[in-house]
Amino acid sequence: MAVIALASASGSPGVTTTTLGLAIGWPRPVLVVEADPTGGSAILAGYLRGRTEPGPDLVDLVLSPTELADALPQVVRSIPNTPASYVAGTRTHQQAAALRDHWSNLATVLANLEETGQDVLIDAGRLGLFGSPEPLLAAADITLLVIRTDLPAISAARSRAETVSRPGVGWRRCGLVLVGEGKPYTAREVSRVLGIPVVAELVDDPVAAAVFHRGTPRPKRFETGGYARSLGATIEALHAEVARSRQELVKEAGR
User: Alpha-carbon torsion 221, 226, 232, 235, what sign?
Assistant: First the structure.
């Protein structure tokens, strides 16, 4: 499959919640990398509700005396009862500086995980912060901008969209994931303003999202509810988008 990165332009549209929701429903082994430079592990504190002891994290990975590829399995932890595992983020935002010179090498290591049958989802947090993992975003097979569809969110994303979608200098392939499509703007309207295609749309359901954000018990009929179904549709859309991207690369190589 691929390496897929998720980020936001502003606010809290649900990048971490979306990343984890996708990972738990992923159809094959998947690794979540908590690369948000704000620090802390949203999986440990949120979904796992602080009931799991902190272990090695990204800083331990890059400071390991061994090669990154050999050190990576030592910092990976499983998410119980799911096909997903994760690498915890830095403990504090000050530690983000320690990762600056290692993102590019990590991007290569993550890309090579496909050979083992494992996919990667990267939670990159908010764009523009000190220590933002820009090389991971640029190297991913597809990088998704997660935004809501109100005017403040679209306005904040506009300048970012112009940069990340610029041929030759932006992300390899970028797309939008809309949270709450039609509240008030439609997918077509958002895509036209930002100049980036909409890959998927997620139902705006804070109660259902709290299952991944805060580790709350799943409400009745969660699996058949709109939020869970929109996560499933997003997974299918991502598989199709990556397949389409690779077909285009093959065509370009054959020219």
Answer: negative
Q: Please state, in angstroms and rounded to a whole number, the distance separating the CA atoms of residues 58 and 26.
A: 23
The encoded tokens of residue 105 equal 């090498």
Domain covering 3-253 in this structure, CATH number: 3.40.50.300
Instruction: Name 98's bridge partners.
Output: none
Contact 43, 34 (CB under 8 A): yes
CB atoms within 10 A of CB 174: 24
- φ and ψ at 105, to 5 degrees? -65, -40
| Sign of the C-alpha dihedral computed for residues 107, 112, 114 and 118 taken in this order | negative
Instruction: With 0.85 as the threshold, say if the pTM is over it.
Output: yes
User: What are phi and psi for residue 59, nearest 5 degrees?
Assistant: -65, -40
d(CA 164, CA 182): 24
pLDDT in tens, 77-86: 999 989 899 9
Tokens linked to 153: 């969110």
Strands (E), 165-244: 174-179, 198-202
| Torsion 236-239-242-246 (CA) sign | negative
60: helix, strand or coil: helix
How far is it between the farthest Cα atoms of the chain?
Answer: 54
d(CA 245, CA 81): 32
Report the percent of the chain where pLDDT is more than 90: 76
